[in-house]
């Protein structure tokens, strides 16, 4: 499989509620480095409803050496609103490509790689993708930015997140139990983070040779 990727949410607006309230470019830069260097991804699908956020994330992804899949995610737009929105996104994707990001693409269909894979199935999924000739796969998703972890299970919104990292309510300034150090942006890896990194590491090494 050529592209070993992950989805990266910059914030979309279902029902008028944004999925990522805070968008800090330096946090995005650090997370792209984690995606490239620790998860061993070769590609990232950057999605969201704000064109300017998509551009910022795409440029940081390109700087990290990732193939950029520029995937706008409009919600509840009228037909009249949708055409200029997609045109702006296409222009921004072309700017990123022209500036050296490689194959930045605007995707107008949102066919996800299945998102309910248990971590123990990561290696099996990888083998299936290889056998079936899948070009690229994108794990959904890097983080659920509005579903912060809480040690009290009654308040733990991360239970509903597909993210490979959990967002920490305290900002992640202190190491957590079990020896795992907090990652970029006040987050820490889940078990699936390590499973995905292990599944992708062979492909990253092969691509470099």
Draw up the topology in text.
Blueprint: E1 3-9, H1 25-37, E2 43-48, H2 51-63, E3 67-72, H3 79-101, E4 105-106, H4 122-131, E5 136-139, E6 165-167, E7 187-189, H5 191-208
Parallel strand pairs: 1-2, 1-5, 2-3, 3-4
Antiparallel strand pairs: 6-7
Helix pairs in contact: 1-2, 2-3
Describe the structure.
The protein has 209 residues and is of the alpha/beta class. The chain has a single domain, classed as TIM Barrel (Alpha-Beta Barrel). 37% of the residues lie in helices and 15% in strands. It contains 5 helices and 7 strands; from the N terminus they run βαβαβαβαβββα. Strands 4-3-2-1-5 form a 5-stranded parallel β-sheet, covered by helices on one side. α1 links the parallel β1 and β2. The radius of gyration is 17 Å and the shape is globular. The two termini are 15 Å apart. The relative contact order is 0.18. Mean pLDDT is 81; it is low at 104-117, 172-182 and 203-209.
List its traits.
single chain; 209 residues; alpha/beta; TIM Barrel; five-stranded parallel beta sheet; two-stranded antiparallel ribbon; 37% helix; 15% strand; globular; disordered C terminus
């Amino acid at each position: 499989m050529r592209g070993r990727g992950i989805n990266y949410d910059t914030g979309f607006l279902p029902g008028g509620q944004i999925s990522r309230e805070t968008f800090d470019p330096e946090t995005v830069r650090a997370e792209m480095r984690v995606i490239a260097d620790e998860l061993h991804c070769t590609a990232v699908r950057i999605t969201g409803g704000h064109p300017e956020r998509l551009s910022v994330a795409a440029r940081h992804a390109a700087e990290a050496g990732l193939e950029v899949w520029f995937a706008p995610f409009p919600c509840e737009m009228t037909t009249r609103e949708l055409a200029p929105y997609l045109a702006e996104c296409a222009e921004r994707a072309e700017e990123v490509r022209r500036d050296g990001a490689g194959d930045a693409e605007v995707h107008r269909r949102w066919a996800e790689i299945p998102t309910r894979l248990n971590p123990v199935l990561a290696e099996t999924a990888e083998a299936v993708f290889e056998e079936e000739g899948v070009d690229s796969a994108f794990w959904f998703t890097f983080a659920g930015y509005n579903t912060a972890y809480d040690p009290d299970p009654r308040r733990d919104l991360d239970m509903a997140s597909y993210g490979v990292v959990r967002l920490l309510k305290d900002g992640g300034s202190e190491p957590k139990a079990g020896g795992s150090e907090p990652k970029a942006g006040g987050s820490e890896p889940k078990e699936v983070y390590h499973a995905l990194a292990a599944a992708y590491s062979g492909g990253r090494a092969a691509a470099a040779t």
